[in-house]
Amino acid sequence: MAGERGLVLHSTDDGATFQRLAIPYHGSLFTAELVGDREIVVAGLKGSLLRSRDEGASWSRLNTSDTASVTGSTLSANGQVLLVNQAGHVFDLRAD
User: Quick check: pTM over 0.85?
Assistant: First the structure.
């Protein structure tokens, strides 16, 4: 789950309990995706986009070409992260 003031909660027991993850961002987050077993992507205000590849132990900021808030995300059939922002742009998160 993602929320206000950089809130990211992660569950390893199908939602019975949650652990808060520390991230290097304290603004509003509007969407979160679990990508595979260990990768987490969160996004939100003013194009903020962060990724963890180690279940939230460490995070990296990703650059977007747009500063509009990212308001939604989904995983495509092939596991690609797709994001949409307030400007109506849809973009994908490329693996690097």
Answer: yes
Question: Does residue 94 sit in helix, strand or coil?
Answer: coil
Radius of gyration over every alpha carbon of the chain, rounded to an integer in angstroms: 13
d(CA 12, CA 34): 12
Helix (H) or strand (E) holding 31: strand 29-35
Burial-class residue 92 by CB neighbours within 10 Å (0-12, 13-18, 19+). Answer: exposed
User: For residues 31 and 70, is the Cβ–Cβ distance under 8 A?
Assistant: yes
33-92 pLDDT, tens digit each: 999 889 999 999 999 999 999 999 999 999 888 899 999 999 999 889 999 999 999 999
Q: Scanning the structure block, which residue is given the tokens 């690097």?
A: 96
The pLDDT tens digits for 87-96 are 999 999 876 5
CA 12 centroid distance within chain: 17
| Cβ atoms of 37 and 25 closer than 8 Å | no
